[in-house]
Amino acid sequence: MAKDRPNFLQRLSELETPGRRLVAKVASHLYKTTPSLVTFAEPLEKGWWIDTNLSRQQALSRLMMACRVANLDYGTDVVAAF
After folding, report:
1. What does the pLDDT look like over 20-41, one tens digit per residue?
2. Who has the most CB within 10 Å: 7, 18, 32, 71?
3. DSSP readout, the chain?
4. In this structure, is residue 2 part of a structural domain?
5. Domain limits at 40?
């Protein structure tokens, strides 16, 4: 999604859950309430980081949020099997 949409990661970084951000420029900024989880941060492109310590439901929720940011329909434009 980021490769096809300018500013996608920046827009996605503005979304968050009560305890975490979806993506961040600084790995430790992903974890608002549990900074010890920073070991689960994985680098993306251009200096962005993403959390990989997610349940299936959390991963699906984040994918659906990303689809909304990218203006894609989850289930039609994007299909994932967990």
Report:
1. 999 999 999 999 999 999 999 9
2. 32
3. -TTTSTTHHHHHHT-B-SSBBSEESSGGGGBSS-GGGGGGEEE-GGG-EEE----HHHHHHHHHHHHHHHT--BTTTB----
4. no
5. 8-70
